[in-house]
């Protein structure tokens, strides 16, 4: 099989498919990325991936190429795993890369081929791509487009691919591709992974609906957190209490700085844009509120920082712990942590940032912030500390030791992960979203 697009999703999928015993070719137009992957170097931080990549390069099951001609001859099953970012100046998804894979690959194919879409796309895309493929396919060549959405979380990519919690497959009417897909995922299906075979539009919608639900859950708890703060209640205890109801569940009720990354924010926007195109914009207008609540968390943390700086950020030395959009990742796309650091810096604060993995990406995105090599270095002389991404090393900081490094022991726990009492006992003033400490 081939995996076209070798970003977080594609590189992980390619390596894991090889790990499961398949012969895999990973393809990308980015020469530099392919060169790094060929040499066993994962171009991003994903725990456990490098080991699998190297093992399967060594055993020869996994290879990488930039040449569509080569991969067109290599396999009959092709995974489409290129990005669908938000369009400039619009909420809609940009399908340029998805479409160009079809127009570059399909004319080179011969015989019978199955293209399995993994990218997150607006409903109706698979049908549109099928029309394009039918137009471009050689005579006597059959190309079928099916949708097989991906649910992997960055930082858990390997386990989510090898042992997914479900597999969804969307097929066109009369398709015989299910058997092929059963072979691809034989080991997962043997382990009784739920397998939902449906039409293509349902499969496309499953993905955006799942991400929108997760985003809604986070914004729900963040909205309630605002109420908790005003009324003197505690959002963590509240989330624990409602989370015991298994219809609700405790996961994704982590109140704080909110969601970011390359998926949730752009997916809810693309979902709204598609609903509008289909004449159902009212159905999803609540997602605009989900988005607004989420963005407001960043402003609220900046507001807390302003209050702690005596009403004016000018000159305040602030340390922001975390730059990645979530722990165990180096991804800074739409990162709440970096957004806050940037806003504080633009407001005149002297901001110092530390992240265990995302420094290089953060520096590229926001070159004007000060990046420090160690967490101690970042904390030295700080008048305010903001915990913005809940990396383990930040959760485990010793409040007494840190108090000896900073100029003023004031911390905003923007992810609600610290033992507030222990920090207070060590002399810290602690603020958190949704809690009146
Ligand atoms: C998300 C989905 O969880 C995956 O299932 C999906 O496959 C993926 O998008 C995708 O579409 O490719 P991911 O973006 O890796 O995965 O990150 P999540 O673990 O979902 O976290 C998203 C954001 O929500 C992070 O910024 C995290 O800090 C935040 N979050 C999460 C909260 O603010 N509170 C919570 O309780 C949980």
From TrEMBL:
Catalysed reactions listed for this entry: UDP-alpha-D-glucose + 2 NAD(+) + H2O = UDP-alpha-D-glucuronate + 2 NADH + 3 H(+)
Keyword Repeat: no
Domain UDP-glucose/GDP-mannose dehydrogenase C-terminal as annotated: residue spans: 319-420
Active site annotation, chain numbering: 263 (nucleophile)
Binding site for NAD(+): 28, 33, 84, 120, 154, 266, 333
Family note: Belongs to the UDP-glucose/GDP-mannose dehydrogenase family.
Family annotation (PANTHER family): UDP-GLUCOSE 6-DEHYDROGENASE TUAD
Name recorded for this polypeptide: UDP-glucose 6-dehydrogenase
Organism: Corynebacterium yudongzhengii
């Amino acid at each position: 099989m081939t995996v076209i697009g070798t970003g977080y999703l594609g590189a992980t999928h390619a390596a894991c498919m090889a790990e499961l015993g398949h012969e895999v070719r990973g393809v990308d137009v980015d020469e530099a990325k392919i060169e790094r992957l060929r040499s066993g170097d994962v171009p991003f931080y994903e725990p456990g991936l490098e080991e699998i990549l190297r093992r399967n390069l060594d055993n020869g099951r996994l290879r990488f190429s930039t040449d569509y001609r080569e991969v067109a001859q290599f396999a009959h099953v092709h995974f489409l795993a290129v990005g669908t970012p938000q369009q400039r100046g619009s909420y809609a998804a940009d399908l340029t890369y998805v479409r160009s894979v079809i127009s570059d690959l399909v004319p080179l194919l011969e015989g019978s081929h199955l293209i399995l879409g993994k990218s997150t796309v607006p409903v109706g895309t698979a049908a549109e791509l099928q029309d394009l493929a039918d137009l471009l396919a050689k005579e006597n060549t059959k190309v079928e487009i099916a949708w097989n959405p991906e649910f992997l979380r960055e930082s858990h990519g390997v386990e989510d691919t090898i042992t997914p919690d479900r597999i969804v497959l969307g097929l066109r009417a009369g398709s015989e591709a299910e058997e092929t897909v059963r072979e691809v995922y034989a080991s997962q299906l043997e382990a009784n992974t739920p397998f939902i075979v449906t039409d293509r539009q349902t499969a496309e919608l499953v993905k955006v609906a799942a991400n929108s639900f997760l985003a809604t859950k986070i914004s729900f708890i963040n909205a309630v957190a605002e109420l908790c703060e005003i009324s003197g209640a505690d959002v963590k205890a509240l989330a624990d209490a409602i989370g015991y109801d298994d219809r609700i569940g405790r996961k994704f009720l982590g109140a704080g700085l909110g969601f970011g990354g390359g998926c949730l924010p752009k997916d809810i926007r693309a979902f709204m844009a598609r609903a509008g195109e289909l004449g159902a914009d009212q159905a999803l207008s609540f997602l605009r509120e989900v988005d607004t609540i989420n963005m407001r968390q960043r402003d609220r943390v900046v507001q807390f920082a302003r209050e702690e700086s005596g009403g004016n950020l000018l000159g305040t030395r602030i340390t922001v712990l975390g730059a990645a959009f979530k722990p165990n990742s180096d991804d800074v796309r739409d990162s709440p942590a970096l957004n806050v650091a940037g806003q504080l810096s633009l407001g005149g604060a002297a901001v110092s940032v530390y992240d265990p993995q995302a420094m290089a990406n953060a520096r590229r995105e926001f070159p004007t912030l000060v990046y420090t090599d160690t967490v101690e270095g970042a904390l030295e002389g700080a008048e305010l500390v903001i915990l913005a991404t809940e990396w383990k090393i930040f959760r485990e900081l010793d409040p007494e030791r840190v108090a000896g490094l900073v100029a003023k022991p004031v911390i905003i726990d923007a992810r609600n992960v610290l033992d507030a009492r222990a920090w207070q006992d060590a002399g810290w003033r602690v603020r958190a979203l949704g809690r009146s400490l």
